[in-house]
């Protein structure tokens, strides 16, 4: 049985034998969550049934976008076995980083190296000129698979800004350590005089934050 509530399972790639899974992210935006958005991740078991997997809540009083990710939707503190990690942005909100619940690298002299947070995902946005103004481009990077341990991703533990996956990907010979994805180019629609994606019914409303990703070599 595929136990979506298992912490160790949630922190690893989906086993190959499980096959493709389909998830849905729902944003809660009513009442108090208008100021501090919440996101709920569901595993879709069928057209009528879904299972709660994770919850993300925006943390207040931070200079950058900062979301706490846990298995408990009421969780607000970083400590606890049900806390999986956090998603945070840089000051310009052009780069986002997903970490587990380890310590900040600045505390490397206070805690064992194993206790320092791992980086699980990096996302970079940039805008390029086009005929109707600017078109957003995205790059998504995740660790590659560990050849010595089947079905397990490589551990990536940046101790300084120059060690993040986005930075390392720019160095020669580093591409084999990561999987890199880019956004699938949207198609021009002359009827609306704009670019559009075909999400095949997977989104409920239009947003500039919606995009599809494909392997970098296919982009």
Keywords:
mainly beta; single chain; 2 helices; two-stranded antiparallel ribbon; 2 domains; Tubby Protein, Chain A; globular; ten-stranded antiparallel β-sheet; 219 residues
What does this structure look like?
The protein has 219 residues and is mostly beta strands. The protein is built from two helices and twelve strands, in the order H-E-E-E-E-E-E-E-E-H-E-E-E-E. It has two domains: 1-63, no CATH class; 90-218, Alpha-Beta Barrel (Tubby Protein, Chain A), CATH 3.20.90. It has helices at residues 7-10, 165-168, and strands at residues 23-28, 38-44, 50-58, 66-70, 83-89, 95-100, 119-130, 133-143, 178-183, 187-189, 194-196, 213-215. A hairpin with a 5-residue loop joins strand 2 (38-44) and strand 3. The mean pLDDT is 84.
């Amino acid at each position: 049985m595929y136990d979506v509530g298992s912490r160790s399972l949630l922190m690893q790639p989906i086993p190959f034998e499980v096959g493709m899974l389909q998830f849905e992210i729902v944003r809660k935006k009513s009442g108090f969550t208008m100021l501090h958005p919440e996101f709920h991740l569901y595993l879709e078991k069928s057209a009528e049934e879904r299972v709660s997997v994770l919850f993300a809540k925006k943390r207040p009083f931070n200079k950058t976008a900062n979301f706490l990710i846990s298995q408990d939707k009421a969780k607000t503190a970083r400590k606890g076995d049900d806390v999986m990690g956090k998603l945070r942005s840089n000051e310009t909100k052009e780069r986002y980083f997903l970490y587990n619940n380890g310590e900040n690298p600045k505390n490397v002299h206070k805690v064992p190296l194993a206790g320092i947070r791992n980086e699980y995902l990096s996302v970079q946005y940039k805008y390029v000129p086009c005929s109707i103004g600017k078109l957003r481009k995205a790059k998504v990077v995740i660790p590659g698979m560990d050849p010595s341990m089947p079905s397990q991703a490589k551990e990536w533990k940046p101790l300084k800004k120059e060690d993040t996956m986005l930075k390392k990907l720019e160095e020669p010979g580093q591409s084999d350590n990561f999987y890199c994805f880019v956004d699938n180019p949207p198609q021009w629609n002359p009827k609306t005089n704009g670019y559009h994606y075909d999400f095949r019914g997977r989104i409920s409303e239009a947003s500039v934050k919606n995009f599809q990703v494909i392997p970098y070599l296919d982009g």
